[in-house]
Amino acid sequence: MSNLIRGISENGGVVFCGVDSTEIVRKAEKLHTTSATCSAALGRLLTGVSLMGAMLKDDGDSITLRVSGGGPAGVVIACTDAHGNVKGCIDHPLVELPAKENGHLDVGGAVGKDGVLTVIRDNKLQKEPTVGQVPLVSGEIAEDITSYYAYSEQIPTVCALGVLVDKDLSIVCAGGYLLQLLPGATDAEITRLEQNIAAMPSVTEMLHAGKTPQDMMELAMAGFDPQILDTREVQYQCDCSEERTKNMLLSLGRKELEKLRDEDPRCEVVCHFCHTKYEFDLNELLAETAPDEK
Question: Are 267 and 278 in contact (CB under 8 A)?
């Protein structure tokens, strides 16, 4: 079964993207051994960036989200390709905070809100990535993504994200949706959408009850005759490799490699996103560089 769906209203004025990211967040929890609150923080960001990636037009494009809010969990990063496949990491994955008064995990407290959401869009047709940045609204992720679209791209957007964590720290369910208004939407259409969304249960309530991303779309876009554009499978997928890691080391230059070699000729590089370890002999790498190379 596909776990991500994209749709559009009959008149083309509203676009929707929804995902069941449960397996993505389960893999992230296993890789990073996150606490409940950090599972929710990283899981929400991975879900949000997957939705944003699925909205990209060109296969070679990618997006990186970086949340730096000054909270005890540190910086949270999530990356997506143009298909919605993601990877991510969090500085301090074991941070745990007491639940909020409503019983929900205190993601905003762990992430902090004294900082910024940075959005890096890498377009294969441009030499340099496009970087956008907005102040954090709450550190709860969904509101911050909504704010980014409103201020940086001037696109009216609704973003809803959720991660439900069990008492044993396992991920019960996770997912979200992104709904955007295209130019020309009428006041009546906007009011109808607001009413639809206000009447919807939370993302985790819907998923826990067995609802699918298509069910979310039909609830959010009731009265708009939504049509499915496409469905796809998305997953947690790291694109690191020995070759890419080797090229990264070579890019440091001969002088820097010599400094590292003098400390220890054996070099181990660990991927932040999937914790794969790559080992290199720095003398062998130096043999591949020109003697006068800087």
Answer: no
Q: Is the pLDDT of residue 277 over 90?
A: yes
Question: Can you spell out the DSSP letters for 249-264?
Answer: HHTT-HHHHHHHHHH-
Nearest 5°: the CA angle 137, 159, 34 is 75
Q: What is the pTM of this model?
A: 0.93
How many whole angstroms separate alpha carbon 55 and alpha carbon 45? 16
User: One-letter amino acid identity for 213?
Assistant: P
Residue 22 · residue 165 · CB < 8 Å: no
Q: How far apart are CA 256 and CA 273, in angstroms?
A: 24
Overall average pLDDT of the 169-192 stretch: 90
Sequence-ordered alpha helix ranges (H) in the chain = 22-32, 36-54, 107-111, 142-152, 187-199, 203-208, 213-220, 242-250, 254-263, 282-287
Q: Considering only CA atoms, which of 241, 261, 243, 265 is closest in space to residue 253? A: 261
